[in-house]
Amino acid sequence: RWQRALYQRFRVLGIEGDELATLGALTLGYKDDLEPDLRRSFQCAGAAHVLAVSGLHTGIIYAVVLTLLTIGGHCKPMYSNQLGRFALSLTVIVVMWGYALLTGLTPSVVRSVVMLTVVEAGKMWYRRGTLLNTLFFAAWAILLVRPRALFSVSFQLSFAAVAGIVLLTPESPISQ
Fold first, then answer.
1. How far apart are the first and last CA of the chain?
2. pLDDT reading at 160 higher than 60
């Protein structure tokens, strides 16, 4: 219902046609209004995967939320005291889970939101973790709630892709 309400909000803002359908797919995972020709155009361009809301989209939303909450990074004092850090991290976690719900809890979004939740929880208690441990924890947590997810191609590809990135990238910004 919220997804549809936000989609209608885009329409109220004057966004129409293919632009509205593309924006809905990119931000909300709402693909019902994508015309077959538009889908084919994305497929021919090799960019159809962009229409699937994924961890990349979640990371962008995470960056935007952090930027807004810290007023573009100028509000560093929030990080300097424990209450401010706790409030900031808790707000980020709630907003990110709200986004996950809004997009339909797809496996890649849930994976990335679980990982961001672990990172933000670590920030609350001044702890840093490794990206690989965070990835394994996310897999464990998801399988604890939905054991059949192990047999989902979306689950397998999401974790395999991120594991590949983690193992091939020497320094990761999320673990810093």
1. 37
2. yes
